[in-house]
Amino acid sequence: MTADLIGRLREVVGPAGVLSDPADLAGYLSDWRNAYTGTAAAVVRPGSTEEVAGVVARCSEAGVVVVPQGGNTGLCGGAVPDSSGRQVVLSLTRMRRIRDLDAANQTVTVEAGAVLRSVQEAAAAAGLLFPLSLGAEGSCTIGGNLATNAGGTGVLRYGTMRDLTLGLEVVLPDGRIWNGLRGLRKDNTGYDLKQVFIGAEGTLGVITAAVLKLFPAVRSRATAWAALPDPQAAVDLIGVLRELAGDRLTGLELMSRRSVEFVLRHSAGARDPFGDPHPWYALVELSDTLPVAGLDAVIESALGEAFERGVVLDAVVASSSAQAAALWGLREGISVAQNHEGPSLKHDVSVPISRIPAFVERTDRALEAAVPGIRIVTYGHIGDGNLHYNLSKPVGGDDDEFRARAGALARVIYDSTCAFDGSISAEHGLGQSKREIVADYKDSHELDLMRGLKQLFDPRGLMNPGKVLPGL
Questions:
Q1: Which residues form the FAD-binding PCMH-type domain (predicted)?
Q2: Number of structural domains in the chain
C-alpha cells in the first residue's frame, strides 16, 4: 500500500485515526486467543458512517483489501488480516453511539462499535431489555454480533441476532451507503436485504449501525441446577419445562460432568451444588416481566414432575441472586477452565434437539476410538440444539501431538454432525478456521448461491477475503 493512500485515509479520518506504527498495530492483528495472527499495512479507526464510506471508497479505488473488525472476540479468525501486510484493518470501535431509543416502538438504534453490555444497559435504563447475552458481552461489539449472527444463552426464548434485528445501515464495497435503518415489524416491499449482511462476517459490506428489538424488562427470575443421568434426560426436561412453564423458559444449558470438574478444579470459589458427582447437569432459568410471578413455585413444580418421571436425579433452586450467579459461573467458566488442561480443540455445532442424545453417544464413541483417553468437554445451549463440543488431550499426553490431530478429530465431529442433519457452526461463524472444510458439509448449490452473492456485492474481492467462502 502506497504512502499516498495512507495520506488519503488520514484526510478522511484525521491523523490520529490511522495507525501504521508496528507498536500501535499489535492489538489488532491477532484474535483474543492468539490462535490467528496476521499483518496489516494500517489500522483505520473511523468515527462515523461517512468516514467509513470514505475509507472504503479510497481503498476500493486503490484495490486494497478491507478487513472489518469490532471487539475482536471471535473464535474463528474472521476479523484477522492475512500475512501479506497489504490489507487495511477497519476498526469500528470508535463508533459507539446509541443513536436513538424508541420506548414506544421498543427499538434501539446503535452504531456497530457499541459494546453489547452498553446496549443492554441503555435498554435497562429505559425499563426495557435487549436480550442477547454471552460470555464476551463486556467487550464484543454489536457489529461483530451481527457479522456472526450471535446467539448466546437466550436464543430459546428470544432468537439469534437475525431475530433481534429490524434494520441495518451498511457501507457497500464501493463506498456507497445503504440506509436500511427502519424500525418496522412489517415491511413487505421486496427482498429482506439485511439478512444478506447478518452472518456474512464482513465479506459483503461493513455494517455501521442497526435497529434492534427491545422487550419488556425482566423483573423476576428463577434459576435451578439439576443433575441428570444422560443427555436424553435433558431433552425430556425441555418437554417438562415447556409444558409447565411455557415461554417463561428463558435458558436451558447442558454440561457434562467433566466440563464441571474442570471449573471446580481451576476456578477460584467454584463449588459443587451437590455432594456427589452426577454424569450430566442442566442449568435452568425462568423469567417473567411481573415482579411477583411465582417462578420459584413453577420451577420447583416442574423439577418435581421431572423427578417423578425419572428425568432428574437431584436439583437445587437458587434462593438469591448471588446463588444464581454462582450457578451461572459454573457454566460460563468452562471454556477458560479447560485451557488449564492443555490445548483445547473447540467446536461449535448444532443438531436437532431430539437427536442430541444419539449424536453425543456416536460422536463420543468415535473420538474415544480415535484417541484412547481423550477428554471430551461437552456443554452448551441444549434448548436450541447448540453444543460446544470441545476436546482436551489424554492425561499425560503430548501437547504438540494432540494439536497435530486437530484436523482429523474435527472431521470425526463434523462427519457425525452431518449424519444427524446438523451444522458445523452454530453461532461462531466460519471465519478462516472452517472456510475450506465447509465445502464438504454444505450443499454445493447453496455454496454456488453464496458465491453469486459475493460476486454481486464484491466483484473485486476486496471485502474480507479468505473468510467464509471456500476458494475465495
A1: 36-217
A2: 4
